[in-house]
Amino acid sequence: MTTLQKVGRDKVLALEKVMKEHPQVEITAVEYFCGGVYAREITIPEGVALVGEIHLKDQINVVSKGSIKIVTEDGEKIIDAPATFISKAGVKRAGYAITETVWTEFIATELTNEDDIRQEFIAPDYETLDKQLEKQYEPTTRIDTHN
Description:
Blueprint: H1 3-19, E1 29-34, E2 37-44, E3 49-51, E4 54-55, E5 59-65, E6 67-72, E7 75-80, E8 83-87, E9 94-97, E10 101-108, H2 114-121, E11 122-123, H3 126-136
Antiparallel strand pairs: 1-2, 2-10, 3-9, 4-11, 5-8, 5-10, 6-7, 6-9
C-alpha cells in the first residue's frame, strides 16, 4: 500500500467515525438470488452520505440510476448512471448521493442467508482483511513423492 492509499484509507475511516455521531438514515437493501449469484440493491436518497463495508473478495457493481461522489483510498470520483465496474477486494468507500442513486453489487456465491454471506464476504476492519489476505496468499509447500 502506498502512502497516498494509507492517507485515503485513514480519511474514509475518519469520515465514518464522524458520521456515526450523527442521525442515521435507514437504507433498506433488496436482495436477489439466482444461479450462484447474490445481488444486493440499495437506493440512496439525494443528499445522503454513507460509508460502505470492507469486502474480502472482488465484486461487480452497477449504478443504474443517479449520480454519486465516491471517496476511496485511491481518491475521489463521481459516478453517473449508467455505470458498471469491478471493486477489488479490500476497498472501503464513502459516498455522497448527488441525486437519488440506485447501486447494486453482485457477488458469486451459492449462499442464500445474509448473515452467512456477510461472514464470507465482509471484513469488520482492516486488520481482519490483512489477516485474510495473508492466509489466502500463504506459500504452499509441495512434497514430491515420485522419486
